[in-house]
Amino acid sequence: MSKFREIFRGKARYVTVRAESDKTEPKREVPDGLWTKCPQCRELLYNKDLERNLYVCDKCGFHFRIGGRIRLAQLVDDLEAFEEYDATLVTTNPLNFPQYEEKLARDRAKTGNLDAIITGCGPIGGIPAVLIVMDFMFMGGSMGSVVGERVARAFERAAERRLPVVAVSASGGARMQEGILSLMQMQKTVAAVERFSRKGLLYISVLTDSTTAGVFGSFASLGDINLAEPGATIGFAGQRVIEETIRKAIPPKLQKAETVFANGFIDRIVPRPELKGEIVKLLTWHGYGRERDSKPKGTSAGAAAPPKTAPLEDDVPPQARANGHAQGFAERGQQR
Ligand SMILES: [Zn+2]
């Protein structure tokens, strides 16, 4: 119990699960300056080369963490053609959590985003797709009400427009500062994926370093095809939490993408320089980008009616969520 008391005492603390590697390795955010030392092989890398190499070490293949905007630029053909969804959605600090607003302001300045996510529609290899890109640099990519709502709305729009979804996750889990509202995003996003999936449309999920806890435990692990970047930390509970619970050391690479792949939870590990090509190939194989690119996979041109399925018990129509205040978010300019 003392642990729970500590959580609410004094300074605000994150309870998002931290990857073990965070404690032992140097910071891996893309830095300023001319040179960067690779945390894996210790080589000095010229930043211009690193950028050209999509922030992958050309000596050892180490994948640096990248921000959401950089990721978006790597995947979309033309950022000018990217139509961002719900870019004005902001959290209302529903629990009045101490210092939450300061942390949000700091990370908004740092990343240029209002929250830990970018959603929208843009062409990938000439194929229109809905993109969901998470930003680990924004409060550890944690999922609060804004992240969950934008994920849910992205899937709803993709279903309406009969477009595929490509989600790139990087998250430490639910956002403690929004308490139970954060946990509710797991249910909401999973329901949105399910409704989307029942339309017979394709969802490709890309798990990057690190994707853990509530995001891994909800929409990120539900792709029709789940890809991962090499060396990414992927899992539900963090190494420390597992070890404290079972009182045993777990193998050091248990939560690396390679181990997760070997155990069948990931379909393929794709190095970043090949990621866009792989996504385009998968979209093409599923019939997108051809003359029928607005039609779902496996549906003939004449079949207009979707297959009859039982309604989801937790089905919440978008209009029922229109009053965002009760859900912890608001359009910018309407904050309380
Ligand atoms: Zn290296």
Summarize the model shown.
With 336 residues, this protein is an alpha/beta fold.
Outline the structure in words.
- The structure is a single chain.
- The chain is an alpha/beta fold and 336 residues long.
- The chain has a single domain, classed as Alpha-Beta Complex (2-enoyl-CoA Hydratase, Chain A, domain 1).
- 32% of the residues lie in helices and 16% in strands.
- The protein has eleven helices and twelve strands.
- The protein has helices spanning 2-8, 20-24, 47-52, 68-75, 100-111, 145-161, 179-197, 213-216, 239-246, 257-262, 272-285, and strands at residues 35-37, 44-46, 83-84, 89-91, 117-124, 127-134, 165-171, 203-212, 225-228, 234-235, 268-269, 329-331.
- The strands form three sheets. Strands 3, 5, 6, 7, 8, 9, 10 and 11 form an eight-stranded mixed beta sheet that branches. It has a two-stranded antiparallel ribbon with strand order 1-2.
- Helix 6 links the parallel strand 6 (127-134) and strand 7 (165-171).
- The longest helix has 19 residues, at 179-197.
- The two termini are 34 Å apart.
- The relative contact order is 0.14.
- Bound molecules: zinc ion (ZN).
- Zinc ion binds at residues 38, 40-41, 43, 57, 59-60, 62.
